[in-house]
Write a structure and sequence with these properties.
- This protein has 523 residues and is α/β, with parallel strands linked by helices.
- The chain is 25% helix and 16% strand.
- The strands form four sheets. Strands 4-11-12-13-10-16 form a six-stranded antiparallel β-sheet, with helices on one face. A five-stranded parallel β-sheet has the order 5-2-1-9-17, with helices on one face.
- The longest helix has 20 residues, at 420-439.
- The model has no long low-confidence stretch (mean pLDDT 96).
- The structure holds flavin-adenine dinucleotide and iron/sulfur cluster (SF4).
Length: 523
């Protein structure tokens, strides 16, 4: 691993080591670029530190620094200080994630043109197309070992999938399979295949599920061009008199503040911390925060329209056995306004252990009905509705007016209201999920509300015109050309699909662009 001086102003500093930051770091290092990644969380050993225990791993991996929430979304009431489920650890949320890896569809890059003017929605076309991204999607799928691509076989179906499949086929759904998963169905890339342990959300002890923790990061280190500093929480990005970013200030984990110089800064802290860092970096020159001449930093926060459907059956299902999310019904992902809403959604199996099942079934719920469901945990199947949500300018991350963190910086507030399109889509998903389980013979079905957001997007969105967004089609700030956004916060719209494959795809593409600009001395 390389070791850079604090005064080295030739390095590219990447903030965050998750899907976006970890991938970008490795891609740049492979191209000979000097990269320093600053990660707020600790570096864990997945073989030793990951344990098959829901709460313990939730505590160990999750970003617990205080956040507040507001708005009419149910999460603000049910989990007011946990609006989002995001990780603080080397590998970021790719330690917790389930691995579902679907490409966006063509129309999802052109929602303003395709869906038209939807009142209250701040829709915008992406400044790029599926055709432009396709070669990078290919590379991302290959890198991550996504099943059903590159000749990689699908994963076997567990009971949770078999129940979903039986009901979905009876209803006539056609796209029903065990998903496109960044989980090895056979040994690949020096990692073993899935052992069906069922703890994908807790961190895969086998290393079968792709995570930057044990793929991108060690590969980057092996190049000799890369240094990772863990427990390094970035507090501020600084700029020089010309307005270009020039350094970052971070806490080194012991309370000491250090200043690292930089040639380029790439922000990949996920969709709450990334805009917060830009806002907290306000200066005399950039009074509203960095990259924010449009006023769009923090706005258009998206989390996917979501909800869970539980079905209880006469015979045991044991949903927790086997992969957490390898099961998909894709037919509803189309844009078909005749259903009463724009955009589409996926239905995906989701398995919760008893602790999370108890927490998410009906937050705050109590009494005989809830106990009935909990008693039948082993007879329960579960699916997740996940669909496109509408960007809204008022759904946004702002700096809290009073509350400060331990560094004296304002904490973030996450404001979200469901758009009526989101509500109509969720209700459609609940209805179809209920029909699927009833067709498979469920004795009782329950629709449960969204849990804290695992998918976080928008807040530094891409736009063709500077006044509409924060970054251009390369993730480069419209205002400051050596400042990049490299995570899901650059999404213009959310699509229906789980976001990580697209985050990785954009990071690979950004690395191509950035390294060539650096070589030409254009940045
Ligand atoms: C339980 C769960 C299941 C999921 N399942 C799926 C799935 O099946 N498919 C899918 O596509 N997606 C899934 N996701 C979402 C997926 O994990 C995220 O989309 C993805 O990891 C986001 O990538 P990112 O680079 O934006 O941020 P992250 O991967 O979250 O990485 C951000 C990193 O930045 C660090 N950081 C933040 N601020 C600072 C700072 N100021 N200084 C230094 N470091 C900082 C954080 O500690 C973190 O490590 C899931 C998420 C969860 C929690
Ligand atoms: S089910 Fe497979 S991917 Fe999930 S934790 Fe177990 S081995 Fe890893």
């Amino acid at each position: 691993m390389a070791k850079f001086e604090l005064t080295d102003d030739t390095v590219v500093v990447v903030i965050g080591s998750g899907a976006g930051g970890g991938t970008l770091s490795n891609e740049l290092a492979q191209k000979g670029v000097k990269v320093l990644c600053l990660e707020a969380g600790p570096r864990l050993d997945y073989t030793e530190d990951f344990v098959n225990d829901e709460w313990e791993m939730f505590d160990r991996l999750t970003w617990h620094d205080e956040r507040t929430s507001s708005g009419s979304w149910k999460v603000a009431k049910d989990f007011p200080d946990l609006p989002a489920w995001i990780c603080k650890t080397v590998g970021g949320s790719t330690t917790h994630w389930a691995g579902a890896s679907l490409r966006f569809q063509e129309h999802e890059f052109r929602t303003r043109s395709e869906y038209g003017d939807i009142a209250g929605a701040n829709l915008l076309d992406w400044p790029l197309t599926l055709e432009e991204l396709a070669p990078y999607y290919d590379k991302a799928e290959d890198k991550m070992g996504v099943t059903r691509t590159h000749g990689i076989p699908g994963l076997p179906g567990n009971n949770n999938f078999k129940v979903l499949e039986a009901g979905a086929r009876k209803l006539g759904y056609k796209t029903v399979h065990t998903g496109r998963m960044a989980i090895n169905s056979e040994p690949r890339d020096g990692r073993t295949s899935c052992r069906q342990l069922g703890f994908c959300f807790q961190g895969c002890k086998m290393g079968a599920k792709w995570s930057t923790l044990y793929t991108e990061i060690p590969k980057a280190e092996a190049t000799g061009n890369f240094e990772l500093r863990s427990d390094a929480h970035v507090l501020k990005i600084e700029h020089n008199e010309a307005g270009k970013v020039s350094a970052v200030v971070y806490d080194d984990g012991s309370g000491k503040l250090l200043r690292q110089k930089a040639r380029v800064v790439c922000v990949a802290g996920n969709s709450i911390e990334s805009p917060r860092l830009l806002l907290n970096s306000a200066s005399n020159l950039y009074r509203d925060g960095l990259a924010n001449s449009s006023g769009q930093v923090g706005r258009n926060y998206m989390r996917h329209t979501s909800g869970t459907v539980f079905g209880v059956f006469e015979k045991p299902v044991n949903m927790y056995r086997g992969t957490t999310m390898a099961g998909l019904v894709g037919d509803e992902a189309r844009h078909d306004p005749s259903r009463g809403f724009s955009g589409g959604y996926e239905l995906e199996t989701v398995a919760l252990g008893l602790p999370l099942y108890g927490s998410f079934l009906e937050p705050g719920g109590w009494g005989k009905d809830i106990a009935w469901f909990i008693d039948r945990y082993d007879h329960t199947a579960a699916m997740w509705v996940v669909g496109e949500d509408m960007p809204q300018a008022s759904n946004r991350i702002t700096l809290h007016k009073k509350k400060k963190d331990r560094f004296g910086l304002p904490i973030p507030n996450v404001h979200y209201d469901d758009h009526e399109n989101d509500t109509a889509m969720r209700n459609h998903g609940y209805a179809q999920g209920t029909r699927i389980y009833e067709a498979a013979g469920a004795i009782k079905v329950k629709a449960a509300p969204p849990f804290p957001s695992t998918h976080n997007m928008g807040t530094n969105r891409m736009s063709a015109k500077a006044q509409d967004g924060v970054v251009n089609q390369w993730g480069q700030s419209h205002d400051i050309d050596n400042l990049f956004i490299s995570d899901g916060s650059q999404f213009t719209t959310s699509g229906a699909e789980n976001p990580t494959l697209t985050i990785v795809t954009l990071a690979i593409r950004q690395a191509d662009y950035l390294s060539s600009r650096l070589k030409m001395n254009e940045i």
